[in-house]
Specification:
Two copies of one chain form a homodimer. With 437 residues, the first copy, chain A, is an alpha/beta fold. Chain A is built from 15 helices and 15 strands. Chain A folds into three domains: 2-126, 3-Layer(aba) Sandwich (Rossmann fold), CATH 3.40.50; 137-301, Dihydrodipicolinate Reductase, domain 2 (2-Layer Sandwich); 345-418, Alpha-Beta Plaits (2-Layer Sandwich). Chain A has helices at residues 13-24, 26-33, 64-69, 85-94, 104-121, 137-144, 159-171, 175-184, 193-196, 199-213, 232-240, 304-317, 360-369, 399-407, 430-433, and strands at 2-9, 35-43, 60-61, 74-77, 98-101, 125-126, 150-156, 243-253, 260-270, 282-289, 293-300, 345-351, 374-380, 387-392, 412-418. In chain A, strand 13 and strand 14 form a beta hairpin. In chain A, helix 1 (13-24) packs across helix 12 and helix 4 (85-94) packs parallel to helix 5. Chains A and B meet through helix 1, helix 2, helix 6, helix 7 and strand 11 of A and helix 1, helix 2, helix 6, helix 7 and strand 11 of B. Chains A, B: Pfam families: Homoserine_dh, NAD_binding_3. Chains A, B: Pathway: Amino-acid biosynthesis; L-threonine biosynthesis; L-threonine from L-aspartate: step 3/5; Amino-acid biosynthesis; L-methionine biosynthesis via de novo pathway; L-homoserine from L-aspartate: step 3/3.
């Protein structure tokens, strides 16, 4: 039996969940890993605060140095944010402690140098909880798909925005109203920018990009759009065209060690895409790889218990699972994705007054005639049309004036969203599809 | 750099896939695991047969002993079936070789004794490919969720039957016609019993039961129903009630080391269940656990490449991942699930001639009045009703005569299917649901 002393930084949602999981599942952990994980010291800001887990009261301190002086081999960082978390993690690694963290911002922005520091000190830095909460996505990529070349990842990595989009679609309610309600219910922060503007997703995508593609991409260089401009009308039109709108993290690598594209933003998913049915606060990741073909992981992306699960699994793995090989991130391999990448695009035209538009089919034919390949069109509402949704097979930034001129439209607001294709539709062959059994 | 010699038994679909993956992804495997996996010898039945992978021609033999005499540390068994696979695997283990296999029947029926043999010889037996094809479900349970108590598993583990049910639902086509077409396309075997009668799923569930619940359950004791009796009418009525029908592998454990229930059969899934959207040849597993809450894994459950992926991942993990602790399967913990378990049930009444039934709502009220709790009713077709679908909140084997008498029905065929509840609906609390982020 191995005994491991743990120093815990922070006793908020995640810290409390970790205390409870270590207590409640102590027997399972001992049986399966022959390891006793003991919390020796807990750093808090306010020692007077009433705690959910009373039995740790005697190990509480407000002095970080005291945590390091305790009999510990691992520090669990559950404070969040950059400061003072970064300093503490650096000091813990310097002191020869392993570190397990749920801190996506810290790992996204400083993961590379922290990993380098850990390697230099002969310790490990694990951060499963930083992406997808309880879903073991990093472990799956690192340990269970390592003979595969993963060439595309698509993720729903923020529960708050997925919850908002789900309710907007189901209730046909506008963004602001659903957001206000989510804030009231505690499902969204008072300042919702990190979620709804896509920052949170960008952190997670940066982490995935480093792990999956070995691409070290500064978060600030990841193109990012939020969901504020999505309307229930767009959601309704998309559904009638066979799509849903999700806030997606998208990463693609064009060959092994080749250029990488990362982007965050709302995009259309075909209703038959494995991520399309992922609703509410659930998170999910879809991986496309050369041997396994595609794997989807779905689970709860946040919350006390799921996040604690990922932290505790990291603690169990520290002394059991092999370290990932030292990465040689290819810093120059980053390819900026373009909004004008020539891929399929949903185009939404919104007029102040009813549009004089014939039927969707007639509209498609007119656009085909002038050389614009349209895969679908829908008019909303049918009588007294004020909105128009079109799926372009390929999109080019030169199209808007052509489109508006052909339709004889003025004073119309045109917005576009990328459309994600189905796995395999680009290169499906019978052999790849395989025979089921 | 470690060099591992591999002896391959069988060069059919899986064996060919393994050869190709080891060749095509050699660089990735070397980079990430510092291991060179070399196929040294391949056992085939017919050495004259033209092979897809030509470069292994010089290592082909028809003599099993010659494989063992080659410079190998691992045997990959890719023959399938019980004989001679079982003998070969035993001999390989006896000879001190690790074994990786995709053979679900062998592991389901003889896994326990083969593991015991492997342990005694100080080698390992890995079989990720035996359940869910490319989906790393066994690895996830063993390595990435080991601090969790998993209390329920629900799986779609057979691509052929899921393909058939998907097409029956989408095309409203009868079982026999879809099966015949699937056979013609090579999606179903000439003798479809293993798939459509649920044997294949029972093998996989037995393996999962041993791994997840430490329950050693003989395959023959797993209650098993196939999909032959499912009709497009049932599928249509279920959908109108908010459900779909899937061939499910269901396993439940009522407390740590407590009694276990395993069963295979068609069951209703609420359309919002994470497994409901899994279509066609895809497989999926839904895990419910005490800390992580629930995780769903979806992927291709068969086919040359996905299966090869799982085999090759096992090869990479042989010398890297920790062995699972020795199991102490609780042989007496098996609880036979009952068709009369008091859970929710879909009841289908099929008459030869039109039924004189009032509206579904009226029907529910009548049944409530005599003490039968009905959550939904649907009549098909509305005009000249010949079929009737009911969702009972709880089902009891004494109900059919009461039901038929109350409705004044005679000569009516009554069949029932269990209904799977949503994760958490039994004990959801706000704290468990957590706050998204």
């Amino acid at each position: 039996m191995r005994r491991i002393g743990v120093g815990l930084l922070g006793l908020g949602t995640v810290g409390t969940g970790v205390c409870q999981a270590l207590k409640n599942n102590r027997d399972v952990i001992v049986k399966r890993t022959e390891t006793l994980l003991e919390i020796e010291s807990i750093l808090v800001r306010n020692p007077e605060k009433k705690r959910l887990v009373e039995e740790v009261q005697d190990r509480i301190t407000t002095d970080f140095e005291q945590v390091l002086r305790a009999d510990i081999q691992v520090v669990v960082e559950a404070i969040g944010g950059l400061d003072p978390a970064r300093t503490y993690v650096e000091k813990a690694l310097e002191a020869g402690c392993h570190v397990v963290t749920a801190n996506k911002e810290l790992i996204a922005k400083h993961g590379a140098e922290l990993e380098w520091l850990a390697r230099r000190r002969g310790v490990r830095l694990l951060f499963e909880a930083s992406v997808g909460g309880g879903i073991p996505v990093l472990g799956t990529v690192q340990h269970l798909l390592k003979s595969n070349r993963i060439h595309r990842i698509t993720g729903i990595l923020n529960g708050t925005t997925n919850y908002i989009l789900t309710r907007m679609e189901e209730e046909e309610a506008p963004f602001e109203r659903v957001l206000a309600d989510a804030q009231e219910k505690g499902y969204a922060e008072a300042d919702p920018a990190a979620d709804v503007e896509g920052f949170d997703v960008a952190y997670k995508l940066a982490i995935l990009g480093r792990l999956v593609f070995e691409a070290e991409v500064p978060v600030s260089r990841i193109p990012r759009r939020g969901i504020r401009e999505i309307t229930p009308e767009q959601l309704r039109l998309c559904r009638r065209l066979g799509y849903t709108i999700k806030l997606l993290a998208q990463g693609e690598q064009y060959r092994e060690e080749g250029p990488v594209s990362l982007q965050v933003g709302p995009a259309l998913l075909p209703l038959s895409h494995p991520l399309a049915p992922v609703k509410g606060v659930y998170n999910a990741v879809h991986l496309e790889a050369d041997v396994v073909q595609d794997v989807t992981l779905i689970g709860q992306g946040a919350g006390e218990q799921p996040t604690a699960s990922a932290v505790v699994e990291d603690l169990c793995n520290l002394f059991r699972m092999p370290a990932a090989p030292g990465l040689s991130p290819s810093r120059d391999s980053f390819l900026l994705p373009s909004d004008d990448d020539g891929g399929p695009r949903f185009v939404y035209l919104e007029a102040g007054e009813p549009l004089q538009i014939s039927s969707p089919a007639e509209l498609c034919r007119r656009l085909q005639k002038i050389g614009l390949a349209v895969d679908g069109a829908v008019i909303h509402p049918e009588d007294g049309c004020r909105g128009l949704g079109l799926i372009f097979r390929r999109w080019d930034p030169s199209y808007p004036p052509i489109l508006l001129a052909e339709l004889g439209l003025e004073g119309v607001r045109l917005s576009t969203l990328p459309v994600q294709d189905l796995p395999f539709t680009r290169e499906l062959s019978a052999a790849q599809a395989g025979i089921p059994g």
